[in-house]
Design brief:
Elements lengths: L5 E5 L6 H17 L5 E5 L5 H7 L5 E5 L16 H6 L4 E4 L2 H6 L4 H13 L3 E6 L3 H5 L3 H12 L9 E5 L13 H19 L1 H6 L1 E5 L4 H8 L6 E4 L6 H10 L3
Helix pairs in contact: 1-2, 1-11, 5-7, 7-8, 10-11
Bound molecules: 2-phosphoglycolic acid.
The site of 2-phosphoglycolic acid (PGA) has 13 residues, from strand 8.
Length: 252
Protein backbone atom coordinates (compact mmCIF):
# COMPACT_ATOMS: atom_id res chain seq x y z
CA UNK A 1 0.00 0.00 0.00
CA UNK A 2 1.57 3.23 -1.11
CA UNK A 3 0.54 6.27 0.87
CA UNK A 4 2.22 9.56 0.04
CA UNK A 5 3.95 10.92 3.14
CA UNK A 6 2.80 14.33 4.30
CA UNK A 7 4.60 16.95 6.38
CA UNK A 8 2.21 19.63 7.61
CA UNK A 9 3.00 22.67 9.74
CA UNK A 10 0.46 23.85 12.29
CA UNK A 11 1.48 27.42 13.05
CA UNK A 12 -1.26 27.79 15.68
CA UNK A 13 -1.71 31.41 16.85
CA UNK A 14 1.69 32.50 15.52
CA UNK A 15 2.65 34.69 12.60
CA UNK A 16 2.09 38.33 11.72
CA UNK A 17 2.17 39.46 8.12
CA UNK A 18 5.92 40.09 8.06
CA UNK A 19 7.32 37.02 9.82
CA UNK A 20 4.58 34.71 8.56
CA UNK A 21 5.21 35.60 4.94
CA UNK A 22 8.97 35.32 5.45
CA UNK A 23 8.54 31.84 6.93
CA UNK A 24 6.28 30.77 4.07
CA UNK A 25 8.80 32.02 1.52
CA UNK A 26 11.61 30.10 3.20
CA UNK A 27 9.56 26.90 3.23
CA UNK A 28 8.55 27.41 -0.40
CA UNK A 29 12.18 27.90 -1.45
CA UNK A 30 13.38 24.86 0.49
CA UNK A 31 10.64 22.63 -0.94
CA UNK A 32 11.50 23.81 -4.44
CA UNK A 33 15.24 23.33 -3.90
CA UNK A 34 15.19 19.57 -4.43
CA UNK A 35 12.96 16.80 -5.69
CA UNK A 36 10.50 15.93 -2.94
CA UNK A 37 8.58 12.71 -2.55
CA UNK A 38 6.24 13.99 0.16
CA UNK A 39 3.35 16.36 0.23
CA UNK A 40 3.86 19.59 2.18
CA UNK A 41 1.34 21.91 3.80
CA UNK A 42 1.43 24.92 6.09
CA UNK A 43 -1.50 26.03 8.22
CA UNK A 44 -1.11 29.66 9.30
CA UNK A 45 -3.67 31.69 11.24
CA UNK A 46 -6.70 33.01 9.31
CA UNK A 47 -5.39 36.57 9.19
CA UNK A 48 -2.43 35.75 6.94
CA UNK A 49 -3.88 32.96 4.78
CA UNK A 50 -4.10 35.22 1.72
CA UNK A 51 -0.60 36.60 2.18
CA UNK A 52 0.89 33.15 2.74
CA UNK A 53 -0.93 31.81 -0.30
CA UNK A 54 0.81 34.48 -2.36
CA UNK A 55 4.17 33.71 -0.76
CA UNK A 56 3.81 30.03 -1.67
CA UNK A 57 3.16 30.72 -5.35
CA UNK A 58 4.92 28.23 -7.61
CA UNK A 59 5.89 25.89 -4.77
CA UNK A 60 4.27 22.54 -4.08
CA UNK A 61 3.17 23.53 -0.58
CA UNK A 62 -0.54 23.37 0.18
CA UNK A 63 -2.28 25.98 2.26
CA UNK A 64 -4.37 24.91 5.24
CA UNK A 65 -6.43 26.60 7.93
CA UNK A 66 -6.76 25.53 11.55
CA UNK A 67 -10.53 25.41 12.00
CA UNK A 68 -13.81 26.24 10.30
CA UNK A 69 -17.53 26.51 11.00
CA UNK A 70 -20.00 23.94 9.66
CA UNK A 71 -22.22 26.47 7.92
CA UNK A 72 -21.49 27.99 4.54
CA UNK A 73 -22.43 31.49 5.72
CA UNK A 74 -24.69 33.28 8.12
CA UNK A 75 -25.06 34.73 11.58
CA UNK A 76 -21.98 33.32 13.31
CA UNK A 77 -19.98 36.30 14.52
CA UNK A 78 -16.27 35.65 14.48
CA UNK A 79 -16.49 32.34 12.62
CA UNK A 80 -15.02 31.40 9.24
CA UNK A 81 -16.82 29.09 6.82
CA UNK A 82 -15.29 26.31 4.75
CA UNK A 83 -16.35 28.15 1.58
CA UNK A 84 -14.33 31.17 2.73
CA UNK A 85 -11.29 28.98 3.25
CA UNK A 86 -11.65 27.46 -0.19
CA UNK A 87 -12.11 30.96 -1.59
CA UNK A 88 -8.82 32.18 -0.10
CA UNK A 89 -6.98 29.20 -1.60
CA UNK A 90 -6.92 26.65 1.20
CA UNK A 91 -6.71 23.01 0.24
CA UNK A 92 -6.78 21.75 3.84
CA UNK A 93 -8.32 22.52 7.18
CA UNK A 94 -7.21 21.08 10.51
CA UNK A 95 -10.22 20.01 12.59
CA UNK A 96 -10.63 18.77 16.15
CA UNK A 97 -7.17 19.76 17.34
CA UNK A 98 -6.90 19.02 21.07
CA UNK A 99 -6.45 22.72 21.77
CA UNK A 100 -9.84 23.40 20.19
CA UNK A 101 -11.40 20.39 21.91
CA UNK A 102 -10.07 21.70 25.25
CA UNK A 103 -10.32 25.50 24.81
CA UNK A 104 -13.59 25.59 22.86
CA UNK A 105 -15.32 22.45 24.08
CA UNK A 106 -15.41 20.87 20.63
CA UNK A 107 -17.06 17.46 20.67
CA UNK A 108 -16.59 14.58 18.25
CA UNK A 109 -20.05 15.35 16.84
CA UNK A 110 -19.11 18.97 16.14
CA UNK A 111 -15.81 17.97 14.53
CA UNK A 112 -17.67 15.49 12.31
CA UNK A 113 -20.18 18.15 11.26
CA UNK A 114 -17.36 20.55 10.42
CA UNK A 115 -15.58 17.83 8.43
CA UNK A 116 -18.68 17.09 6.38
CA UNK A 117 -19.08 20.79 5.61
CA UNK A 118 -15.40 21.15 4.73
CA UNK A 119 -15.58 18.20 2.33
CA UNK A 120 -18.69 19.66 0.74
CA UNK A 121 -16.74 22.88 0.13
CA UNK A 122 -13.97 20.89 -1.56
CA UNK A 123 -11.51 21.09 1.32
CA UNK A 124 -9.47 18.19 2.62
CA UNK A 125 -9.51 17.72 6.37
CA UNK A 126 -6.79 16.86 8.86
CA UNK A 127 -8.80 15.40 11.73
CA UNK A 128 -6.94 15.29 15.04
CA UNK A 129 -7.30 12.75 17.81
CA UNK A 130 -5.26 11.86 20.87
CA UNK A 131 -5.39 10.94 24.53
CA UNK A 132 -4.55 13.02 27.60
CA UNK A 133 -1.87 11.95 30.06
CA UNK A 134 -4.50 10.81 32.57
CA UNK A 135 -6.18 8.68 29.91
CA UNK A 136 -2.85 7.17 28.91
CA UNK A 137 -1.97 6.39 32.52
CA UNK A 138 -5.31 4.65 32.93
CA UNK A 139 -4.54 2.53 29.87
CA UNK A 140 -7.34 4.10 27.83
CA UNK A 141 -5.32 5.36 24.85
CA UNK A 142 -6.71 3.02 22.22
CA UNK A 143 -10.29 3.32 23.54
CA UNK A 144 -10.16 7.13 23.53
CA UNK A 145 -8.65 7.30 20.06
CA UNK A 146 -11.16 4.77 18.72
CA UNK A 147 -14.07 6.76 20.11
CA UNK A 148 -12.68 9.94 18.58
CA UNK A 149 -12.26 8.28 15.20
CA UNK A 150 -15.75 6.78 15.25
CA UNK A 151 -17.30 10.09 16.34
CA UNK A 152 -15.23 12.67 14.44
CA UNK A 153 -14.66 11.09 11.04
CA UNK A 154 -17.63 11.28 8.66
CA UNK A 155 -18.86 7.92 7.39
CA UNK A 156 -18.44 9.36 3.88
CA UNK A 157 -14.76 10.29 4.40
CA UNK A 158 -12.27 8.94 1.90
CA UNK A 159 -8.49 8.75 1.73
CA UNK A 160 -8.67 11.51 -0.89
CA UNK A 161 -10.38 14.03 1.37
CA UNK A 162 -9.27 13.09 4.88
CA UNK A 163 -6.00 12.77 6.78
CA UNK A 164 -5.88 11.69 10.43
CA UNK A 165 -3.40 13.18 12.88
CA UNK A 166 -2.68 11.22 16.05
CA UNK A 167 -1.46 13.72 18.60
CA UNK A 168 -1.14 12.58 22.21
CA UNK A 169 -2.20 15.67 24.17
CA UNK A 170 0.66 15.21 26.66
CA UNK A 171 3.21 15.22 23.84
CA UNK A 172 2.09 18.53 22.31
CA UNK A 173 4.58 21.30 22.97
CA UNK A 174 6.19 19.39 25.82
CA UNK A 175 9.23 17.83 24.19
CA UNK A 176 7.90 14.43 25.31
CA UNK A 177 7.01 11.74 22.80
CA UNK A 178 5.68 8.20 23.00
CA UNK A 179 8.08 5.42 22.09
CA UNK A 180 8.18 4.44 18.44
CA UNK A 181 6.45 1.18 19.39
CA UNK A 182 3.64 3.06 21.15
CA UNK A 183 3.15 5.30 18.12
CA UNK A 184 3.01 2.35 15.75
CA UNK A 185 0.60 0.47 18.02
CA UNK A 186 -1.83 3.41 18.16
CA UNK A 187 -1.60 4.09 14.41
CA UNK A 188 -2.24 0.43 13.61
CA UNK A 189 -5.21 0.40 15.99
CA UNK A 190 -6.55 3.62 14.47
CA UNK A 191 -6.35 2.11 11.01
CA UNK A 192 -8.38 -0.88 12.20
CA UNK A 193 -11.07 1.38 13.65
CA UNK A 194 -11.07 3.46 10.48
CA UNK A 195 -11.75 0.27 8.52
CA UNK A 196 -14.91 -0.23 10.61
CA UNK A 197 -16.02 3.32 9.92
CA UNK A 198 -15.16 3.85 6.25
CA UNK A 199 -14.26 0.40 4.96
CA UNK A 200 -11.00 -1.46 4.69
CA UNK A 201 -9.98 -0.11 1.29
CA UNK A 202 -10.23 3.56 2.25
CA UNK A 203 -8.70 2.94 5.66
CA UNK A 204 -5.72 1.27 4.02
CA UNK A 205 -5.16 4.29 1.82
CA UNK A 206 -5.82 6.98 4.43
CA UNK A 207 -2.82 8.81 5.82
CA UNK A 208 -2.31 8.86 9.56
CA UNK A 209 0.14 11.53 10.67
CA UNK A 210 1.87 11.63 14.03
CA UNK A 211 2.01 14.94 15.91
CA UNK A 212 3.39 16.02 19.25
CA UNK A 213 6.92 17.36 19.75
CA UNK A 214 8.15 16.20 16.35
CA UNK A 215 11.67 17.56 15.95
CA UNK A 216 14.52 17.00 13.49
CA UNK A 217 16.14 14.67 16.06
CA UNK A 218 13.16 12.29 16.40
CA UNK A 219 11.71 12.52 12.88
CA UNK A 220 13.62 9.56 11.50
CA UNK A 221 12.54 7.22 14.28
CA UNK A 222 8.92 8.33 14.56
CA UNK A 223 8.02 8.98 10.93
CA UNK A 224 9.34 5.85 9.26
CA UNK A 225 7.07 3.40 11.06
CA UNK A 226 4.80 1.22 8.90
CA UNK A 227 1.53 2.96 9.80
CA UNK A 228 2.92 6.49 10.18
CA UNK A 229 2.43 8.56 7.05
CA UNK A 230 4.01 11.83 8.04
CA UNK A 231 3.78 14.51 10.68
CA UNK A 232 1.71 17.40 11.91
CA UNK A 233 4.36 19.72 13.30
CA UNK A 234 3.63 22.57 15.70
CA UNK A 235 6.51 24.43 17.34
CA UNK A 236 9.19 23.16 14.98
CA UNK A 237 7.19 24.35 11.96
CA UNK A 238 7.83 27.96 12.96
CA UNK A 239 11.46 27.69 11.92
CA UNK A 240 11.88 26.78 8.25
CA UNK A 241 15.22 25.08 8.94
CA UNK A 242 13.70 22.78 11.58
CA UNK A 243 10.57 22.07 9.52
CA UNK A 244 12.68 21.12 6.51
CA UNK A 245 15.12 19.11 8.63
CA UNK A 246 12.15 17.08 9.87
CA UNK A 247 11.16 16.47 6.25
CA UNK A 248 14.71 15.57 5.25
CA UNK A 249 15.14 13.19 8.21
CA UNK A 250 11.83 11.54 7.39
CA UNK A 251 13.07 10.85 3.87
CA UNK A 252 10.90 13.55 2.29
P1 LIG B 1 4.08 20.51 18.70
O1 LIG B 1 2.53 20.66 18.29
O2 LIG B 1 4.82 20.00 17.50
O3 LIG B 1 4.50 21.91 19.09
O4 LIG B 1 4.13 19.56 19.85
C1 LIG B 1 1.92 19.76 17.43
C2 LIG B 1 0.48 20.12 17.22
O5 LIG B 1 -0.17 20.55 18.20
O6 LIG B 1 -0.05 20.02 16.11
Amino acid sequence: MVRKMMIAGNWKMNGLSTDGVALAKEVAAAVKAKKRVCEFAVCPPFTILAAVKKALRGAKVALGAQDCHFDEKGAHTGDISPLMLADVGCAYVILGHSERRADHGESNELVCRKAEAAHKAGLKTIICIGETLAQRERGETIDVCSEQILGSVPATATAADTVIAYEPVWAIGTGKTPTAQDVEDVHAAVRKVLAKKIGKAQAGKMRILYGGSVKPANAKELLNLPDVDGALVGGASLKAADFMAIADNAGC
